[in-house]
Amino acid sequence: MIEPVENSYSFSDREAHLWYVVPDEVKSSFLLSNYLDILSPCEKENVSRMRGEQLQKAALLARVLVRTTIARYQINGQVNPRSLKFKKNIHGKPELEWDDDQCQCASRLQFNISHTSSLILCGVTVDSPIGVDLEEKQRKLKNNILAFARRYFTPHEVKFLSSISDPVVQHQHFVKLWTLKESYVKALGRGFSGLPFRMFTIQFRTTENGDSCPSGETNNEGEIIVKSLEDVNSFSSNWQFALLELAGSHYAAICMEKDEAVEGEVPTPMKLTVRKTIPYVRDELISGPDAAVISGLT
Amino acid sequence: MASVSAASVAFRALSKPPLKSNETSRLKIVSLGWRKNGFPSLRSSRLHVSCAAKPETVDKVCEIVRKQLALPAEADLTPESKFSAIGADSLDTVEIVMALEEEFGISVEEESSQNITTVQEAADLIEKLVQKKPEA
């Protein structure tokens, strides 16, 4: 367990911490200019390249959220968020870069970020690669859902979506599938272009019959599993998923690498702790309808 | 290098043998400057050696991007505009690619999607794929 010096953000086994910011709640220009100071020159440049105030604000808050969140998990005294360094893996996934003299514990922190125009989310774990993806529940496709799914998803997923007659529910399940698939390729560090979505299937497996079925409004739709299409009989069982409804407005998909399960033992389920934050102003532990679990945390 | 005039570069591209790749990129830098100064007709394949998009292709891509992102009419969209900078997320980019596939009758590998970060890159890829298509 990593226990920081001040606030006690300790991780228990298989736990991911989720932090989110609502840009609309960050209004103070004084605060925003202080936030800008935390960024690296390169990040400031990227923010300035965004077209329009709203996009710039979201880009700024995204970097601030990453830096301040990671800095909370202090290992050796205070970590200045400004001092954190980042690099990208071969597929472009951002990772932390530590100097040799920094404590090895720090390098165990894993993170991933996702944002929409109205919400910014950062997930942190110890040791486990993590991918998070956010989408507004109301996000509309310009294309027809099934046409899109036929082009980019697997036949199994197309069949699943086609079997849902209510267009509202079908749309919800499309968005859920999209976020789950994104969270998986982000957790793997490969991204959409590194692992095309038609190469793996996401299934909802209910506890009763083991077949995937389109659930409507039930609270827990059971387990979410991923199957590689390259080896049809294999489950990519190293990865666990959770799906949440966040702040009433978004679906958030979380994907984490599992521990190696000992033969015969049930693998430890994922635990999530959700906090809403305005960095340096206010943190709030969130439960209940603002972080409602849809699937995956049985 | 930056002071080369429009006419002399165009002449060079027509009369000299294929330029080396670093010279091509120098031309690109110069041509970007011209676009800003308002010489839209020079935004053509005369300034690039490898296949580059026709203005009609670039315009069509712009139209599709504008529609996908619901950009207001006054929003500035140039061939160099980065999709991420104008608010496109991964789902938008994938939808844009799908619309381009339908519009131009091509098939874009998912692996290429990371190379489509601007209107120009999308248009260039389209031209390449269209040229590769077998005769109907």
UniProtKB/TrEMBL annotation, chain A:
Its EC number is 2.7.8.7. Residues 129-209 form the 4'-phosphopantetheinyl transferase domain. Coiled coil: none annotated. It holds the Pfam family AASDHPPT_N. Keywords: Transferase. It is an enzyme of class 2 (transferase). GO terms for molecular function: transferase activity. Residues 34-120 form the 4'-phosphopantetheinyl transferase N-terminal domain. PANTHER family: 4'-PHOSPHOPANTETHEINYL TRANSFERASE SUPERFAMILY-RELATED, PHOSPHOPANTETHEINE TRANSFERASE. This is holo-[acyl-carrier-protein] synthase. It comes from Rhodamnia argentea. The gene is LOC115753919.
From TrEMBL, chain B:
InterPro entries: ACP (IPR003231), ACP-like_sf (IPR036736), ACP_chloroplastic (IPR044813), PKS_PP-bd (IPR020806), PP-bd_ACP (IPR009081), Ppantetheine_attach_site (IPR006162). The keyword Protein biosynthesis does not apply. Transmembrane segments: none annotated. It comes from the Eukaryota. It is found in: Plastid, Chloroplast. Gene3D superfamilies: ACP-like. NCBIfam families: acyl_carrier. This is Acyl carrier protein. One of its GO terms (molecular function) is phosphopantetheine binding. Its main location: plastid. It comes from Rhodamnia argentea. It holds the Pfam family PP-binding. The keyword Cell division does not apply. SUPFAM superfamilies: ACP-like. GO terms for cellular component: chloroplast. Belongs to the acyl carrier protein (ACP) family.
